[in-house]
From TrEMBL, chains A, B:
Name used for this protein in its record: Histidinol dehydrogenase
Cofactor binding, note field: Binds 1 zinc ion per subunit.
Family stated for the protein in its record: Belongs to the histidinol dehydrogenase family.
Enzyme Commission number: 1.1.1.23
Gene: hisD
Length: 434, 434
C-alpha cells in the first residue's frame, strides 16, 4: 500500500519534503571494474571485446561475427508477429512526423550595423545507440532513440546490443531497420561503450552515445563523457496523476500500475481532491495487482514509493506538481487544458481522461525518453536537438570593426587581456596603445 | 615555438592524430575535499558557508553581510571607468538582441487523426551563476551567462562570487546590474556550489548552475549534478586560424596570442597553404611576445600546445578543421564564405580578415561560452535553450484512443508489460485480453 499524505495535515510540508527527496535507486559502485574494462578495450580493441563478450554474454566472436548482417535482420523480421510489426510501423511513422517538427531553422542575418551573425545547426557526424539485452530490450526505445537521429540527419547511427548466448530480440532488429540503423554490433556492457567512444579495429568511434543501460553502462557513459557526448543518465520512471473524483478508479489504478510494473524503483503518485475516490483507487490497485504478471515488481514499487496525496482543492495540486516535476504527468480532469499553463515542471503532460501515459510510451509520436527524478525542473525529453549542434557565425567588415572595436579593446584591457586588445587594435592601426 | 606539421610529410597522420589527443589539462583530484565541503554545507548551511569563506576568502560574515546590497552595487558602479561601462552597455545590448532570436517557439498542433501534440518551452525557475574571483573575474562572462537567462525569462537569477578579503571586481557588479541579476552573494568555491544546489537559511536552492570556475568548482558541479542541472565543464580555450598568404602576419600572430594569453593550457593553431607566411607568423609571434604583459602564459601555451600546419591546398584544411572541432575558428581568407558550409564542427566561426575572435569574446553579440576540447563535435555554445526546458503535451479523445490503442497494446504485450497494455485496454472496454 502506498503512503497517504493529506495537504491539510499539520505535518504535510515536512512529510512532502521528505517524500520528494526519497532516493529510489541504489547506486552500485562499479567504477573500478568499468575503468579496467574501458582501459582494456582502448588498449586491445577487438580482442578485448571478444574476451568480455565471451565472458559476460557467452558469445564467441571466432564463430559469430560481431556485426549483424542485413540477412540476419531479414531473418529476424520474419520472426516478429505481423501485428507487432504493424504496431512498430504505426509508432515509427508518428514519431518521425512529430520529431520532424523539431528540426531547428538556421538563423543567418545582418544587423542594423552591418554585422553578419548566425546560428547554424548541423547534425552530429556519428552517434552510438546502446540497447540493453534481456527483458529490458525494448523495440520502442530503439525507435525513440534512433528516429530523432535520423530526422536530425546524422549520417552514421551505430547500434550496440548484447547478444546473450547469441540471441538478440528480433523486434529490436526490426525496429532498427525501420529507424534506418545500418550498423549493428552484438556487444554490450562497459566494453560496448568503450568501443563506441574510442573505436576498435572493427568499430569506428562515434561522437555521442545515447540510450539506457544497467549500472555498468551508466558508469561507462559517465567515464567516457568529454571524449564523446552522452545523453542524460535515466533513473527509474515515474508518473504523477492529478485526478478528480469523476474518473473511473480502475482506469487511474491501471495507469499507476503501468508505471509501477517497470521497476521496483519506479514511482506512481496520485493527487486528488476526493478522499472517497482515493480509497477506491487504492482498492482497485490491490484488486488489479492480483492478476498482473509483473505483480511482484509493481507491488514493491507501489508499496515503497507510491503515494496518494489528498488536496482540498485541485488548484492546490499545481504547486505540488511543480515541485515533484514528474517525468509523466496525467491530468485526468474535466478541464485539463486550463491546468496546463500552470504546470511549469513536467517531462510530458497527458491531457484528459483518454490519454493514458502508455500512449506516449509507444504511439503518441512524442518521445518516451524523458527527464526522471525531478530533473524536469531543468531538462527536457530527448529530441532532434540532442543529435545536432549549433555553430555561431560572426562576420565584420572594416567598417563594423571600426565601430565595435573600441568597446572590445576597452573591455579586454579592463580584464587584463592585452593580447586580446591588440588583436583588434592592430587591425585599426591603433598600435599597442589602442 | 609551436610545433610544425606538414600535410605532405609521410608521418603527418600519425603526428596529427597524436596532436589531437594531447591533454592540455592536469586534472587535480579534489573530490574528497569537495565532498566534505558539500556535506558540511548541506548539514550546517550558513554556518558552514561562514567558516569556509573566512578560511578561504578571509571574509567574516559576522562583519559583512553575505548578500551584496543594491547600495553596494551602486557604489561599485561609480568606481568603474565610464569607458568600460559604455563598452559593457554596447556588449549587453548586442548580446541581448542576438539571444532574443534564439527564443524557441511552442509548437502546439493537432494531427490529421485529431491527436493533440505539443512541444512547450518554459524557463527554468531559478538558476545560479558562478563567477570566479581574482584575475579570472570577467564582467564579459557575467553578461554572457546572465543575459541568455534573462532572455529565457528565468524569474530568479542568483550570482555567487568569492570576495577575497572582501573585494569584488566592481565591473562584475556593474555587469550583473546590467544583466538584471538581483540576488548576489559573496561566496565562492565548492561551498557556493553546495549552497546553490541544496540551499541554506539565507540562500534558496536553484535548479541549474552555470558558469566557469577552478578545479574545486568544477568538481563540485559534477558532484551536485542530478540534484540540479549544470552547464558543460569548460576546458582551456582554443583557436584555429585558417589563413592564406595574403594576410598580414602580424594580425594573425596577434589572434594566436590573444588565445594563448588566457592560460598555459590554451591552444592556438594556424593552418595555411603558404610556408613563407607560416614562418612570417611564427616570427611575428615571437616579436609580439616581447611586449606582452602576459608573455609568460602566452609563450608557454604557444610552446607547449601551439601548432602551425602546412597544407598543399586550403581545401585540405577542411577535414583537419572538422577533426580539430575548434572552439573558435577564424577563416582569414578571400572567399571565407565558401568554406563555411564545409565546416561541420566548430563552436563559432569568425569570417574574413576583419573578424578577430576577440570581437566574439565581447561585443559581437553571440555567446563566448563555447564547447572546448573537441566537444564542438557533439555540443553547442551557451544559449537561451540552456535556460529553458521543453515539455511534451499529448491529448487523445476516445476516438483517437480507439484508433491508436490497439497498436500500443500490441507493443506493450510484445515487451512483456501487461499493466501497460491494460491501462489502454480498460479504457476501450477490451478487458484483460485486449
Amino acid at each position: 500500500m502506498a503512503i497517504r499524505l493529506d495537504f491539510l495535515d499539520g505535518d504535510f510540508e515536512t512529510r512532502f519534503a521528505a517524500f520528494l527527496t526519497t532516493k529510489r535507486e541504489v547506486s552500485e559502485d562499479v567504477n573500478a571494474t568499468v575503468r579496467t574494462i574501458i582501459d582494456d578495450v582502448r588498449l586491445r580493441g577487438d580482442a578485448a571485446l571478444a574476451d568480455y563478450s565471451k565472458r559476460f554474454d557467452g558469445i564467441d566472436f571466432s564463430e559469430t561475427a560481431m556485426a549483424v548482417t542485413e540477412a540476419e535482420i531479414d531473418a529476424a523480421i520474419a520472426l516478429v508477429e505481423p501485428e507487432v510489426l504493424g504496431a512498430l510501423k504505426v509508432a515509427a511513422v508518428r514519431i518521425e512526423a512529430h520529431h520532424r517538427r523539431q528540426l531547428p531553422k538556421d538563423d543567418i542575418y545582418e544587423d542594423a550595423m552591418g554585422v553578419g551573425l548566425g546560428s547554424r545547426w548541423t547534425p552530429i557526424d556519428a552517434v552510438g545507440l546502446y540497447v540493453p539485452g534481456g527483458t529490458a530490450s525494448y523495440p520502442s526505445s530503439v525507435l525513440m532513440n534512433a528516429l530523432p537521429a535520423r530526422v536530425a540527419g546524422v549520417p552514421r547511427i551505430v547500434m550496440v546490443v548484447p547478444a546473450k548466448d547469441g540471441q538478440i530480440n528480433p523486434a529490436v532488429l526490426a525496429a532498427a531497420r525501420m529507424a534506418g540503423v545500418e550498423e549493428i554490433y552484438r556487444i554490450g556492457g562497459a566494453q560496448a561503450i568503450a568501443a563506441l567512444a574510442y573505436g576498435t579495429e572493427t568499430i569506428a568511434p562515434v561522437a555521442k552515445i545515447m540510450g539506457p543501460g544497467n549500472a555498468y553502462v551508466a558508469a561507462a557513459k559517465r567515464h567516457v563523457f568529454g571524449t564523446v557526448g552522452i545523453d542524460m543518465i535515466a533513473g527509474p520512471s515515474e508518473v504523477l496523476v492529478i485526478a478528480d473524483g469523476s474518473n473511473d478508479p480502475d482506469w487511474i489504478a491501471a495507469d499507476l500500475l503501468a508505471q509501477a510494473e517497470h521497476d521496483t524503483g519506479a514511482q506512481s503518485i496520485l493527487i486528488t481532491n476526493d478522499a472517497g475516490f482515493a480509497t477506491a483507487v487504492e482498492n482497485a490497485v490491490e484488486r488489479q495487482l492480483k492478476t498482473l504478471p509483473r505483480a511482484h515488481t509493481a507491488s514493491a514499487s507501489w508499496r515503497d514509493f507510491g503515494a496518494v496525496i489528498l488536496v482540498p482543492d485541485l488548484e492546490d495540486a499545481v504547486p505540488l506538481a511543480n515541485r515533484i516535476a514528474a517525468e509523466h504527468l496525467e491530468l485526468a480532469l474535466d478541464d485539463a487544458d486550463a491546468m496546463i499553463p500552470k504546470i511549469r515542471n513536467a517531462g510530458a503532460i497527458f491531457v484528459g481522461r483518454h490519454t493514458p501515459e502508455v500512449i506516449g510510451d509507444y504511439v503518441g509520436g512524442s518521445n518516451h525518453v524523458l527527464p526522471t527524478a525531478r530533473s524536469a525542473r531543468f531538462s527536457s525529453g530527448l529530441g532532434v536537438l540532442d543529435y545536432m549542434k549549433r555553430t555561431s557565425i560572426l562576420r565584420l567588415g572594416v567598417e563594423q570593426l571600426r565601430t565595435l572595436g573600441p568597446a572590445a579593446i576597452a573591455l579586454a584591457r579592463s580584464e587584463g587581456l592585452e593580447a586580446h586588445a591588440r588583436s583588434v587594435a592592430i587591425r585599426l592601426n591603433l598600435g599597442d596603445e589602442g
